[in-house]
Amino acid sequence: MRTKQTIIEFKHGFVLSGLDALQPAGSYRVDVDEEEIEGLSFLAYRRTGGILYLPAGSHAGDCRSAVPLTLAELEAAVPSKA
């Protein structure tokens, strides 16, 4: 298992299954979890899920939140380069 960190840009507001409200457009950090595909003659990985990090709000005491992403949500948010 490995985790790759990426920044994605949402051009429009969005909602995910783990969120109660519409999130504003902007740049968000995503940690993408991948597992090695065994039995191949070369090294390859497949995405298994991820975590989207929401920035802290503008109020003192607000903390950053991490929202788990399903594989379908992850693939829609971070398209594969293959």
- Please, how many domains? 1
Q: How many strand elements?
A: 4
Secondary structure class reads mainly beta
Strand order of the largest sheet: 1-2-3-4
Q: What is the mean predicted local confidence, pLDDT?
A: 83
Shape: elongated
* Sheet with most strands: 4 strands, antiparallel
Amount of beta strand: 35-45%
Q: Span between N and C termini?
A: 19 Å
The count of helical stretches stands at 1
Task: Show unreliable segments.
Answer: none
Q: What is the helix/strand order?
A: EEEEH
- Helical percent range? under 10%
Rg estimate, integer Å: 15 Å
Describe the protein in words:
There is one protein chain. The protein has a 4-stranded antiparallel beta sheet. It is mainly beta and 82 residues long. A hairpin with an 8-residue loop joins strand 2 (26-36) and strand 3. The protein is elongated and about 45 Å long. The chain has 1 helix and 4 strands, in the order ββββα. The two termini are 19 Å apart. The chain has one domain.
Topology:
Elements: E1 2-10, E2 26-36, E3 45-54, E4 65-69, H1 71-77
Antiparallel strand pairs: 1-2, 2-3, 3-4
